[in-house]
UniProtKB/TrEMBL annotation:
InterPro entries: PPR-containing_protein, PPR_rpt, TPR-like_helical_dom_sf. Keywords: Repeat. NCBIfam families: PPR (TIGR00756). Belongs to the PPR family. P subfamily. This is Pentatricopeptide repeat-containing protein. Pfam families: PPR, PPR_2.
Length: 301
């Protein structure tokens, strides 16, 4: 599009096109359009810039969004909390702890006060990036800002602790959570159950599962799937089968292909081929591909 056409569009139309390009995910076209808007003496506002930052982040391009923020500052446009939180969350999704810390530092330098959503993204990025010690330091510092600490804050760090395998620390952290009158939810128990299952500790996982049910917290698909796989590996096929059919009764839950294949392998390994074949048939009806070729071939005979 030529400069003449740009100029003829007028401020309202040209900015409108720029906004639509960004809104519909045409980031490259939007970025090409942006300097042309400036050349004809038009300036975009903070809302429009934030829209472009948001699109870049949704496209998984937080580094480009960070560079665009530097351009905003040169244009005398001050990024706000929305700008920074968006980029922090995008880096967090990538597990880029350095990127998260970099943006957080810039935010502080701009004298923008972080809110709880900032800390959610910061902790998530540090934990997923393997920087658990730094995440714990950030969390400890939040006690001076109690409004920034909620159940989500606790759950993010709890998931990081569980993933590290330090389950004793995770349980203590959960106790601290209750002492602060922040009570566990489905996510809390799911992280703990998954952590114990990952270590093959089926008894603590079952105890947590039972506590979850006693508190009228309905287990998630992840909790069921983790527990079923761990029970099978522990040789407890009957218990695993019971849980499997409990999931099948629920409208909002469904075993995934990994659980189906684990059930097939479990029965096949015990010599119960007929039951394994039934699971293969059920798998196919659900649109899953059985991994155990021997049982699959037997089911076809």
């Amino acid at each position: 599009m030529s400069m003449v056409v740009f100029a003829s569009l007028g401020r309202r139309n040209s900015l409108g096109i720029f906004y639509k390009l960004c809104r519909h995910g045409h980031v490259i076209d939007g970025l090409k359009f942006y300097p042309e808007i400036n050349k004809i003496g038009q300036n975009v506002d903070l809302v429009t810039c934030n829209e472009l930052v948001s699109v870049l982040c949704k496209k998984g391009k937080p580094r480009q969004a960070e560079l665009f923020v530097e351009h905003m500052v040169r244009m005398k446009l001050t990024p706000d909390i929305t700008t920074f939180n968006c980029i922090i969350n995008s880096f967090a999704e990538k597990g880029d702890s350095l990127g998260v810390l970099s943006i957080y530092d810039k935010m502080v330098q701009q004298l923008i006060r972080p809110n709880k959503y900032t800390y959610h993204g910061l902790l998530r990025g540090l934990c997923s990036g393997g920087n658990l010690d730094e995440a714990k330091k950030v969390f400890a510092a939040l006690h001076s800002a109690p409004s920034a600490v909620d159940r989500i804050t606790y759950n993010i760090l709890l998931q990081g602790i569980c993933s590290s395998g330090n389950l004793e620390d995770a349980l203590k952290f959960c106790d601290d959570m209750v002492e602060k009158n922040i009570f566990p939810d489905t996510h809390t128990y799911t992280f703990l159950i998954a952590g114990f299952c990952q270590k093959g500790s089926v008894v603590p996982a079952i105890i947590l599962f039972q506590k979850m049910m006693e508190k009228a917290l309905f287990p998630s698909n992840v909790a069921y799937n983790c527990l079923i796989q761990t029970l099978i590996k522990d040789g407890q096929l009957k218990a695993a089968s019971f849980l499997f059919w409990e999931i099948m009764k629920k409208d909002n839950l469904a075993p995934d292909s990994t659980v189906f294949n684990t059930m097939v392998d479990g029965y096949a390994g015990c010599g119960e081929i007929e039951k394994a074949e039934k699971f293969v048939s059920l798998m196919k009806k659900k649109g899953f591909t059985p991994a155990n070729k021997h049982v699959t071939d037997a089911a076809l005979d």
